[in-house]
């Protein structure tokens, strides 16, 4: 097993579970756009409780069921690729919060995996 490290940028988009884009969940639209843009990966995490600009607390507890739980879409790739993707969010995220965090990626590859070309600057691939 080989361990590779690289610098990256983490993009997190916080939206509501009930937010939609053309009758499709907004989080799903973000993931599909990230995939189409060729980004390294995206994951969606559903929150169990939270509040945002509305100051309303949304929770998954049984006695106060919510249909608009917080959702976080997390995308990690190189900084240039993430920044190039940001305009794809402009027309679909009408309410929400977007954060960018520098991070270090540790990628484990097996003996048969092709890690791709080596990139000493960490700008072209993860």
TrEMBL record:
**Pfam families hit by this protein:** DUF190 (PF02641)
Highest taxon in the source lineage = Bacteria
* Matching InterPro entries: N-reg_PII-like_a/b, N-reg_PII/ATP_PRibTrfase_C, UPF0166
Similarity comment: family membership? Belongs to the UPF0166 family.
Xref: PANTHER family: UPF0166 PROTEIN TM_0021
User: What's this protein's name?
Assistant: DUF190 domain-containing protein
Lineage runs: Bacteria, Bacillati, Actinomycetota, Actinomycetes, Kitasatosporales
């Amino acid at each position: 097993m080989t361990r590779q490290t690289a610098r990256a940028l983490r993009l997190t988009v916080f939206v509501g579970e009930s937010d939609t884009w053309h009758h499709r969940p907004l989080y799903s639209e973000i993931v599909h756009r990230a995939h189409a843009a060729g980004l390294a990966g995206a994951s969606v995490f559903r929150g169990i409780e939270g509040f945002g600009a509305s100051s309303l607390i949304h929770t998954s507890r049984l006695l106060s069921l919510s249909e608009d739980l917080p959702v976080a879409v997390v995308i990690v790739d190189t900084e240039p690729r993430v920044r190039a993707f940001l305009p794809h969010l402009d027309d679909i995220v009408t309410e929400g919060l977007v954060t960018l965090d520098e991070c270090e990626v540790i990628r484990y590859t097996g003996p048969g995996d092709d890690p791709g070309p080596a990139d000493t600057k960490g700008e072209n691939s993860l």
